[in-house]
Amino acid sequence: MSRRLAEGADAPAPRSESAPVSAVVALGANLGDRADTIAAALTDLARLPLTDLVRAAEPIESVALTPSGRDASAPGYLNTVALVSTRLAPTVLLDYLHAIEARHGRAPRSADQPRWQDRTLDLDLIAYGEVTSDDASLTLPHPRAAERDFVLAPWLSVDPDAVLPGRGRVADLLRALREDDDR
Fold this sequence. Notes:
Elements (H helix, E strand, L loop, with lengths): L20 E9 L4 H13 L4 E6 L3 E3 L1 E3 L2 E3 L5 E10 L3 H14 L18 E7 L4 E3 L2 E3 L8 H10 L4 E2 L3 E2 H13 L1
Antiparallel strand pairs: 1-6, 1-7, 2-6, 3-6, 4-5, 8-9, 10-11
């Protein structure tokens, strides 16, 4: 059954006795020592309160994605996906992800910032159990996850039965994406 967050309403932070939820966090970096940054961010995720890092995929290389498409001339990304078990509310988890990004040198997000710019660290909350949300501050599942092989492939490698809520099995989404790329 899908739980939906009310638009404009934050879910309260769950109490520690609530059941953990499986969340999917995508990590990417294309500036600085990418491997060290990813490793440190995974450690930071594992240290979050009410959260355990369950598994992380081996990082993969990917071409930078810009609003106009892939840009092989831009610094390449190192990407991975982490599965976490958490009792934090999704909005609270997202706030922690932004704090981890800031600790690793990412400038705060702002309206005048170009979209998909180079960065020391990018953390995206891809899915949070079966929760769906269209809130301006948190869209779940991530609206472009099904279009990103650098999210789907690592996710599938750590969870062969993964499902992107509302979109379907990750294996099927990745297969369709790769078939489209081959055309």
